[in-house]
């Protein structure tokens, strides 16, 4: 029988019976995805929620908020560059790549959230 204290590891599974509410992080991921349809407006709401609630839960959940904040700022950069590149017509391809990047990043985050662990590669600019 393992009576040790839970590990203070960002990727650790939540302690037995005390799993925190993951509704808000799920909402933020969905808002990021909906931002592709709303021109980023819902994504802006999502990043505000992530900023407000980060630091209020276990380390693995805080990593999700950090991941969502980074996703917002990196997506803003990628979509902004794509907007500029549409002037030379290559922007449509980079916009499509940015959409795929955002979807993959949100799906990976939602999968990690359902497993009660931190997302992989929080600091990466890729997926």
3D architecture notes:
By secondary structure, the chain is mainly alpha-helical. It is 63% helix and 0% strand. It has helices at 23-38, 41-53, 59-85, 91-114. The longest helix has 27 residues, at 59-85. The radius of gyration is 16 Å and the shape is elongated. Mean pLDDT is 89; it is low at 1-7 and 10-16.
The oligomerization state is single chain
Number of strands: 0
Structure annotation, total helices: 4
Tell me what portion of residues adopts beta-strand conformation. Answer: under 5%
Gyration radius, rounded: 16 Å
Question: Which structural class best describes the helix and strand composition?
Answer: mainly alpha
Instruction: Tell me about the largest β-sheet.
Output: none
* Chain-averaged pLDDT: 89
Query: Low-confidence spans: pLDDT under 50, at least 5 residues?
Result: 1-7, 10-16
- What gross morphology would you assign? elongated
Report, as a whole number of angstroms, the end-to-end distance: 38 Å
Helix content: 55-70%
| Secondary-structure element pattern, one letter each | HHHH
Layout of helices and strands:
Blueprint lengths: L22 H16 L2 H13 L5 H27 L5 H24 L13
Give a quick rundown of the structure:
The protein is mostly helical. It has helices at 23-38, 41-53, 59-85, 91-114. Helix 1 (23-38) runs antiparallel to helix 2 (41-53), helix 1 (23-38) packs parallel to helix 3 and helix 3 packs antiparallel against helix 4 (91-114).
